[in-house]
């Protein structure tokens, strides 16, 4: 697969990060994603014919927001990847389908009860499952109620438990469940978005905060699904755990569709800005390159040592010392001595003495978390917090301590020190 193309993305964000982390010790590396999240590519500089060409390329690869699709790539045959069936995993597809069916049986229990007694007309499904509903209605119309024998009933049951939304259906699910916050086109600007702090995610940058991957890597399907199932405590992002597995995966498909599509768009605009032209195969190359970033995430897990050591009082005490130590964790600079998020690097001092909040990569004020409140959005198990400290939080000033090096280029923190910090962070909860 084409390796990720490095464009000039890296450069601008150094300035952004320097501004955001002016007082932070472990300097965050320059990142492609930070710039992607923040910088609207100046597409007014793009001539109309180039813009039209990009729009046509995007439509060929992705369809439209109403009729979304993913164009298949030859290279995927070698790696056994197909976005349309990716939800079933690349392992035991039969077992996966079984799990999906079990989840659908719970979610659509009422509907299955109707089918079971031959009442096909009594089946009501969400509007985004319209195709399935129409199929059931059609079957009802052609088969009189008294003729709906066990075979006919089992057939319709199989349709319901075997339903997996198309991308178009998932787009429609998204419009029902997510667009009011995340915006019709995933720009994070839905009608209720302004009432939320933090704001709903703008999916276009492909930047996700609470992943199980190394910093700046894309999230896996599991990461995105986990956010949907657990929600993000202390934010507007509630749990969607009531959805079936198929609906959850469909939502993951559509979030990825938005993010990958915009990734290709931004890459094309940036290429044009860089070279003043677009090669014939630019769109396909950008498509392969953006997808390869997403697929690479599978091999970019944060290395969490097992087993989890015991959270002894000795380890918690060492965690506290590391938290306060300016040459080690130095969490205190942001999270403050008591962990409530009021450290000296939680704001910048402007000329004239005004306090200015630090910003996230979307340009909004952000506060270091009040750890005393005990809300852990990436999960509250020790290994979840270990991961968070190791990989940081993408799009925010929270640094990746597991990737930080000391002056000699050795890891700044040992595995055990990161455990100690995780235990201490967890112990702060009142
Ligand atoms: C009531 C508003 C609201 C609704 C409805 C909502 N979200 Fe969110 N969502 C948020 C907010 C706010 C955040 C950002 C939280 C943060 O930055 O910590 C978020 C974040 C996310 C993230 C980013 C997670 C990460 O690790 O960065 C994903 C993915 C997501 N939402 C998907 C969805 C999907 C899919 C739906 C519909 C099924 C949905 N959301 C519905 C408010 C909402
Ligand atoms: C440069 C500032 C900064 C430093 C240094 C920093 N953090 Fe953070 N931290 C943040 C911000 C900002 C957030 C909230 C990000 C968000 O939720 O969007 C956060 C969030 C967290 C969370 C919440 C994670 C979750 O799953 O919700 C934990 C735990 C945490 N930090 C621990 C630490 C520890 C331990 C250290 C030191 C090793 C540290 N932080 C250093 C800024 C910082």
Question: Which key features would you list for this structure?
Answer:
disordered N terminus, mainly alpha, 1% strand, two-stranded antiparallel ribbon, Cytochrome Bc1 Complex, Chain D, domain 2, binds heme C, 430 residues
Structure description:
The longest helix is centred in the middle third of the chain and has 31 residues, at 245-275. It is built from 17 helices and two strands. Mean pLDDT is 90; it is low at 1-41. The protein has a two-stranded antiparallel ribbon with strand order 1-2. The chain has three domains: 23-80 and 183-298, no CATH class; 108-161, no CATH class; 313-427, Orthogonal Bundle (Cytochrome Bc1 Complex, Chain D, domain 2). A hairpin with a 5-residue loop joins strand 1 (347-349) and strand 2 (355-357). By secondary structure, the protein is an all-alpha fold. The site of one heme C has 30 residues, from helix 15, helix 16 and helix 17.
Mean pLDDT: 90
What is the oligomer described by this structure?
single chain
Please provide the count of β strands.
Answer: 2
Question: How would a crystallographer describe the biggest sheet?
Answer: 2 strands, antiparallel
Strand order of the largest sheet: 1-2
- Radius of gyration, Cα only, in angstroms? 24 Å
Q: Name the poorly predicted regions.
A: 1-41
Hetero groups: heme C
Distance between the termini: 49 Å
Q: Give the helix proportion (percent range).
A: 40-55%
Following the backbone from N to C, one meets helices and strands in this order, namely: HHHHHHHHHHHHHHHEEHH
SSE class:
mainly alpha
Strand residues, percent: under 5%
Count of individual helical segments: 17
- The coarse silhouette is globular
Q: How many domain regions?
A: 3
